[in-house]
Amino acid sequence: QVQLVESGGGLVQAGDSLRLSCAASGRTFSNYAMGWFRPAPGPEREAVATINWSGAVTDYVDSVKGRFTISRDNAKNTMSLQMNSLKPDDTAVYYCAASLYGSLAYRPNEFPYWGQGTQVTVSS
Predict the structure, then answer these.
(1) Which of 16, 19, 24, 60 has its CB surrounded by the most CB atoms within 10 Å?
(2) What is the DSSP-derived secondary structure letter of residue 88?
(3) Are 31 and 124 a contacting pair, CB within 8 Å?
(4) Is 57 helix (H, G, I), strand (E, B) or coil?
(5) Would you state the torsion angle of the CA atoms of residues 20, 22, 23, 27, taken in this order, to the nearest 10 degrees?
(6) Is the pLDDT confidence value at 54 over 80?
(7) Is 89 exposed, middle or buried (0-12, 13-18, 19+ CB in 10 A)?
(8) Greatest CA span in the chain, whole angstroms?
(9) Beta strand spans in the chain (E)
(10) What is the predicted pLDDT for the residue at 42?
(11) pLDDT tens track for 72-84
(12) Average pLDDT over residues 33-45
């Protein structure tokens, strides 16, 4: 079992930056791919950024490429999402999630472990 706790959300203005953190406990954190998700217009949450077990491979949804950076520190059991040049469209609850696999994953059903979410609000 993996427990995930997010932090770092808040209210900022357009153009500002925020750094989200996810602290993991339980089973071996470094075995699992991780991701940051937010609600999407469709039925599933959107994978904003994903990272493989080692941190060497990452991927992003097109709308945040060049602005967001996902990273992880397996020694500290933490994952982060650095969000720069924030836009009002980035406003959402952001969820940290852990996959059962080491390679990149994107679908919410590939992530059995979820945090409670942290609110990010970007004002124009």
Answers:
(1) 24
(2) G
(3) no
(4) coil
(5) -170
(6) yes
(7) exposed
(8) 41
(9) 2-7, 10-13, 18-26, 34-38, 46-51, 58-60, 68-73, 78-83, 92-98, 113-114, 118-123
(10) 83
(11) 999 999 999 999 9
(12) 93
Tokens of 23: 């602290």
In angstroms, the Cα distances linking 124 to 10, 11, 16, 88, 99 are 14, 11, 11, 6, 34
Structure tokens at 90: 């980035």
The answer for residues whose C-beta is within 8 angstroms of residue 35's C-beta and 6 or more apart is 47, 48, 49, 50, 51, 70, 96, 97, 99, 105, 106, 111
- Two tokens, residue 103: 């390679």
Distance CA 78, CA 56 (A): 15
Residue 41 has pLDDT above 90, yes or no: no
Q: HSE-up of 109 (CA within 13 Å, CB side)? A: 2
